[in-house]
Design a protein that fits this description.
about 30% strand; binds zinc ion; 3-stranded mixed beta sheet; 2 helices; about 130 residues; alpha+beta; hypothetical protein PF0899 fold; 3-stranded antiparallel beta sheet; elongated
Length: about 130
């Protein structure tokens, strides 16, 4: 599918961010996916393995977090997040649900190696 272009985007972003903080190696790239994003984390990992060869992201692992599905019940009107396999309104049990989200995709965080001692865990607020 479109994992290849997504992975190019992820890799470029990761390399830029790593460069900003002077990282020597990218270990983990954490991404967040909606359940209907159409993206398969294993495919992204496979493309990353290919694309990252010779870069500091070589060998980096993709860690994907799948978001719950946001729905609105057409019967009782309540909004809820569904993580179970059985998709039904948690309030009234209705199966008539409108899907509000599910195609999200974004890069959450990176885990990198930095040689200098510059608080390795803080990923924001650095200039
Ligand atoms: Zn309901």
């Amino acid at each position: 599918m479109h994992e290849l272009s997504i992975t190019e985007h992820i890799l470029q972003y990761a390399l830029e961010e790593a460069q900003k903080i002077g990282a020597q190696k990218i270990r983990i790239i954490r991404i967040v996916l909606g359940p209907f994003s159409g993206l398969v984390p294993e495919c992204i990992q496979m493309y990353l393995d290919l694309l990252s060869e010779g870069t500091i992201a070589q060998g980096a692992k993709i860690e994907a977090q799948i978001l719950p599905l946001k729905v609105r019940c057409r019967d009782c009107g309540k909004e809820s997040e569904i993580t179970r396999r059985h998709i039904a309104c948690p309030y009234c049990g209705s199966l008539r649900l409108q899907v509000l989200s599910g195609k999200e995709f974004y890069i959450d965080s990176l885990e990198v190696d930095v040689n200098e001692y510059k608080s390795p865990s803080s990923s924001h607020g650095m200039e």
